[in-house]
UniProtKB/TrEMBL annotation:
<feature type="domain" description="MATH">
    <location>
        <begin position="173"/>
        <end position="300"/>
    </location>
</feature>
<dbReference type="InterPro" id="IPR002083">
    <property type="entry name" value="MATH/TRAF_dom"/>
</dbReference>
<dbReference type="InterPro" id="IPR008974">
    <property type="entry name" value="TRAF-like"/>
</dbReference>
<dbReference type="Pfam" id="PF22486">
    <property type="entry name" value="MATH_2"/>
</dbReference>
<protein>
    <recommendedName>
        <fullName>MATH domain-containing protein</fullName>
    </recommendedName>
</protein>
<feature type="domain" description="MATH">
    <location>
        <begin position="19"/>
        <end position="151"/>
    </location>
</feature>
Amino acid sequence: MASLGDHDEIIKSVSDAPPTHYMVKIESFSLLTKHAIERYETESFEAGGYKWKLVLYPNGNKSKNMKEHVSVYLALADSTSLGPGWEVSAVFRLYLLDQNKDSYLILQGKERRFHTFKREWGFDKFIPTATFFNASNGYLMEDTCMFGADVFVSKERRSGRGECLSMIKDATSSKHIWKIENFSKLDKESYDSNAFFAGDRKWKIRLYPSGTNHGTGTHLSIYLILADPETVSDGTKIFTEFTVRIYDQLQGRHIAGKVTKWFSGSSLENGWVKYVSMVYFTQPSSGLLLKDVCLVEADVCVHGITSAL
C-alpha cells in the first residue's frame, strides 16, 4: 500500500477517466537519474482558484529516507501571494497512466491544509520502483510515462493575526561618525546626518542644535531615526540597541547615551530630549565643541525583528 507523508492510509483506485486539471508526460525517464535530477517540479496549473505544481522524485524523496519508490506530491505553487494567515484546504488525486490498459492508477488521501509553512502534500511511496520500471505493468513504456493531478479546493480561510519574532544570533553593530562644522551658524530646527546601514536597515542621526520639546533652549536633543519607513510593513518591529556619543576632542572623555528600543512604523525615532546641556556643550574645557566643530557617533546593533505571520 502506498503511503502519505504522515503514513495515513489512502484510497487506491483505477479509472478510465483521465485527470481534468493537469498531466505531465515524461520521455526518456531514465535520463532523470543519469543526470542526477532527484526532484522535478512541473509548471504551475490552476485549480479551484489557486496555482499548483506536481513534484516528482524519480528515486524517492531522500529527505524522508525513501528508497525503492517513486515519490509524488502536490504543491501550492505560490503560497507567498496568499498573504499572512491564509490556508487552503483541498482534496486531491494523483494519477499514473497504465499504458497497457489505457487506464489510470489513482491515489487519493484525506483533505489537507496547505499554507506558507506546509505547501506540499502527497505520497512518499507512490509506487515501488520495481513495479514502475517493469514494462509488463504498463506504467513505464519505451522509457515514457504520464502522471496527472486533480485538485478540489474544499475551503479557505484566513486565521487570526499573528507575528514572528526572529532574534539575530551574533548580531554585529555598525558605527557612523558625523562631523558637524560651523555649529554656531546652525539656524534650522533640526539637521540629519547622511544615511548609514545597520542590520539591513537605513538609519540617520537627527540633531536639534537648540533642543526640542522640554529641552528647547537649554539642551541639545539627539535621536536615532529609522530612515526608510516605507520598508517597514504593518506589524514589523525592530529591536535595536544603540549608543550615541559626542566626542571630547581634547581629553577623550566622550559623553554617551545608550538605550535599547523597539522601532516600528509608528515609532520611527528614539533618543534624548535632554542629551547634554548647552552650558556644558559650549564650555571650551568640555572639548565637545572645538573650533566650532563637533563629532557625533552612532553605534547601532539590530538584535531582532518582529514581522506579521
